[in-house]
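Example S7 (structure tokens).
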């Protein structure tokens, strides 16, 4: 009798601790930004920038809309070296904090950004930007992709596994004590 009360108390305690708190999901998918800029050889001076039409996938279909303006510093310095966290852009409710940015080849840039939006956990994303190689204002296209992350079991799953093991141990223990 005493062990059954202890088992019930332990089970209730484990369940109370394992009830998941409300948590936000990571962002998934990709989106594109298009517009015009001038490449000075050390910086990109943006004339205009907005989200593309129908370019949002995954979480970004609910976060961003078509032709949504990008705001932030219109000059992005990449040479001699990009200064991490020096550029933050916003697109609607999405904040894009550029962590790294570099020239890969003429007209091709890549980097990593930290994306933040209400209702989602902050998520790292890969950024690629390509421009035409002409002088003067040229068009550009930037794509931001959130790499897929392998699924990790939630804490509740581990709690249920623990409760199952505890139950099996109790059954085995009772069988051994019930023997004459």
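Recovered sequence:
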């Amino acid at each position: 009798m005493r062990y059954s009360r202890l088992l019930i108390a332990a089970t209730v305690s484990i369940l109370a601790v394992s009830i998941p708190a409300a948590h936000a999901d990571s962002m998934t998918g990709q989106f594109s930004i298009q517009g015009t800029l001038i490449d000075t050889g050390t910086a990109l001076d943006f004339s205009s920038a907005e989200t593309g039409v129908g370019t949002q996938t995954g979480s970004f279909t609910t976060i961003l809309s078509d032709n949504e303006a990008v705001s932030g510093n219109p000059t992005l310095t990449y040479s001699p070296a990009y200064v991490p966290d020096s550029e933050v852009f916003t697109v609607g409710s999405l904040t894009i904090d550029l962590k790294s940015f570099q020239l890969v080849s003429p007209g091709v840039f890549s980097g990593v950004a930290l994306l933040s939006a209400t209702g989602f956990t902050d998520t790292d994303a890969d950024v690629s930007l390509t421009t035409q190689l002409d002088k003067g204002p040229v068009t550009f296209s930037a794509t931001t992709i959130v790499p897929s992350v392998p699924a990790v079991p939630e804490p509740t799953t581990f709690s249920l596994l623990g409760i199952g093991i505890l139950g099996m141990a109790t059954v085995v223990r009772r069988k051994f004590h019930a023997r004459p």
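Notes on this example. The chain has a mean pLDDT of 81.
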